[in-house]
Amino acid sequence: MKTKEANVSISLDMKGIPINNYGVIQCVEIGEQRSIVAIAEKGLDYWNRLNPNITPVLLSYSWDLGRDLRTTKGLETKVTLNEGLINCAEWLINNVTEYKDFSVWKYSYPSYFGTKSGWRSAHAQGQAIQLLLRVFEITKNSDMLNCAYAAIYGFSKSLEQGGLAEFLDSEQTWYHKFADENSEHPKVLNGMLFAILGLIDFQKRIGMSEVNDMLSRGLNGLVFNLSKYDHGKWSSYIDNNKLASAHYHSLHCQQLSAINEYINFPIIKETLSRWQLSNVKNAIGGKYSPSIIQAILHYFTK
Fold this sequence. Notes:
Strand 3 and strand 4 (about 30) form a beta hairpin. The longest helix has 18 residues, at about 120-140. The chain is mainly alpha-helical. Helix 1 (about 35-50) packs antiparallel against helix 2 and helix 5 packs parallel to helix 7. Residues about 1-5, about 65-70 and about 280-295 have low confidence and may be disordered. It has helices at about 35-50, 80-95, 120-140, 140-150, 190-205, 210-225, 245-260, 265-275, 290-300; strands at about 10, 20, 25, 30, 30-35, 95-100, 105, 165, 175. The chain folds into 2 domains: about 35-55 and about 80-225, Glycosyltransferase, CATH 1.50.10.10; about 230-300, no CATH class.
């Protein structure tokens, strides 16, 4: 068995659906797996490229210019953009786990922060819903809409119920990127922000009173906990004192900017204005060397 961590690589199958090769994660051989978020994001990448004149859906990485995690090195499968879009959406509806009153996508392999096989992701759930809604608008396939409806209720269920939510109090919820009732429960900022963006997108396109409550609770959770990620002109990945990479800091700025366009919370606007002062050009590519990142962080956090 390998003991050294391997870099994640992604290839596309004959239908244009991603296959992740994780190699080894924390001394456990993971190998080739289907990542829910990669499939949702690749589907949304197809949609973005089909609609160049529409504001693109925000993704974790650029599938064209991002780090090797998100490139196919010129070996992109010869499917049309429309075929790839629909194929990714169909994979999602065929691989969702259905319960009596909600649905979630589950990862069939362990990951970081003590997550075991069967963990869920609010990040992936939000982006999967965004993809299904767009494919429904194109195809009018009711299976896409029905799956999105069932999946949105995953945000109303606690981790212990098999859902995505940690109810912080009567008015605040945190939606977990690594949702597992038995994990370390890290509160990952980018995952929470993607979940909120997914809920916003659902409300703009569908609109439901129950989803408005999920969104309000999530926004309250974000606002009351944002200071834990605030280091003046830089952000952190989780709620601790470890600064985020240049890539994730740039992503946090883009996510908060998108949320700020939807709702005006003074703390979000003020935090964003400071974080944007240190937003580095092309940081989204994740290509900076450790020495450059260290110099950037030193300059903007001193």
